[in-house]
Amino acid sequence: MWKLTRFMRPYIGGIILVVGAVFFQAFAELMLPNLMSQIVDQGIAQGNISLIWQVGARMLLVALGGTVLAVGGTYLESRLSSALGRDMRRAVFARAESFSLQEFNELGTASLITRTTNDVSQVQQVFLTLTRVAARAPLMAAGGVVMVLAKDPRLATMVIAILPALALIIVVVARKVMPLFRKIQGKLDQLNRVAREQLMGVRVIRAFDRVEFEQGRFADANKDLTTITLRVSRIMALLMPLMSLILNLTTVGIVWFGSKRIDMGHMAVGDMMAFTQYAMHILMSLVMMSMIFVMLPRAAASAERINEVLEKDPRITDPERPVPTQKGRGQVEFDGVTFTYPGAEAPVLENISFVARPGETTAIIGGTGSGKSTLLNLIPRFYDADSGSVRIDGVDVRQLPLTSLRERLGYVPQRAVLFSGTIASNIRAGKDGASAEEVEAAAETAQALDFILSKEGEFEAPISQGGANVSGGQKQRLAIARAVVRKPDIYLFDDSFSAVDFKTDAKLRAALEKVARDKTVIVVAQRISTIMHADQIVVLDAGRIVGKGTHKELLRSCPVYQEIAASQLGEEALA
Length: 575
Description:
This protein has 575 residues and is an alpha/beta fold. It contains 19 helices and twelve strands. The mean pLDDT is 80.
């Protein structure tokens, strides 16, 4: 957890102010029992009304000062803890944004969400408590020990003898709950993952009548979390009763032995009252410290999880000596590229070589799992090739700054993703600051203009989270418009026409030919009708290139392409 102290450095001044306020507040509270004993022993016992008024006025001033310091300290520490939480969330999110798909696969989206929210909240809550209790409790305990020794050393030995028992209880409880808190955070990840899957796949779950099964999965994950949380709660539930028992027994002991000391004339009534207050300060300080020791294990587990994100180095980063960005035509070349997913037994792509030239459309086709989308993901460096190279205008993509590389690409993913906002804001995600004319032109090219103009608000019509209020075909066309408005050198379409009908598909391809006339276009497709007019078609099978050429050439020479064509176009196409 100490590694997160770097987030506290900008707020050192504020922390010092909070600690100072807590220090003076504790000092004021330690003064009050002593002033009270003066009123009882020198004022009430001797009938000195003047002294009662004088000391009483000082007590009121001390109490008022303590109240002001408490309010000010609480305000400051709330601001500091909120700022700390904000900075940690920002840092975790920024680090996650820099991860490649490989790091996302390792950590998991559900876990990253939990770390950004729940784990940060745990650390923030402990920081909020620490700034007060960590400064206040030791001071109150030490000050209380000094004061009880000054009041009556013999009676003070009884209070001091209790401290090891309290410390032992705190240590035992902390050792028991620390590993359990780590498990709780893991179970939260699991629950978050199950809930996220079910919410995202609600249509599939209902369509296949899997509601009861998924409810069972959620119930199991929820039960696991509940079981371990109850176990921790039961252990912690023992702490306060034990502390209270020791506290009350100590109070009884002080009154019992203190009354005897008063009867023997070794102690005044006011001193015993003050002694009782100081003893309570000591014991309550230990109770507060025990709560910190109980909270620290969970915060420590959360801090470790946060540090795991912050210290994980992205595998895909800008090169140390990047090649200066030069304006080229956007030729893409794969040269002996082999790629294997982490943990996979065999490469998903093996010895891939081809050239996609500007002014031409290069299509990638193959069976499911043949590596089509993976091949496309190597161009924007979502992954890096194990061997071989992917080059743009003769420069390896690994030698280009990521920002410069991706600025030249217009990428439309296989699963069209829209963000909550408006139609215009989603299209402008491709080019920040695009004019209204550019947005409209991109929508027209993507064959999205008709359905946009039919909506209330047109380009300002709202888009709900994930684009849930538009159809699959409309979502794909908006994603294509987002790529077109960018006016890139290289267009990458990952099966981006699958949800549109054949008529719209033909119009869309004709419109794209106009805007991408001198650009490099790479299309991954399942339908031969989408790519049959491509200048070059690359056929993949089990991660290898088994055919390359035009539609007519492949019908003559490539058995895999012939099989795909026969299944989609019929045997007449082969004839």
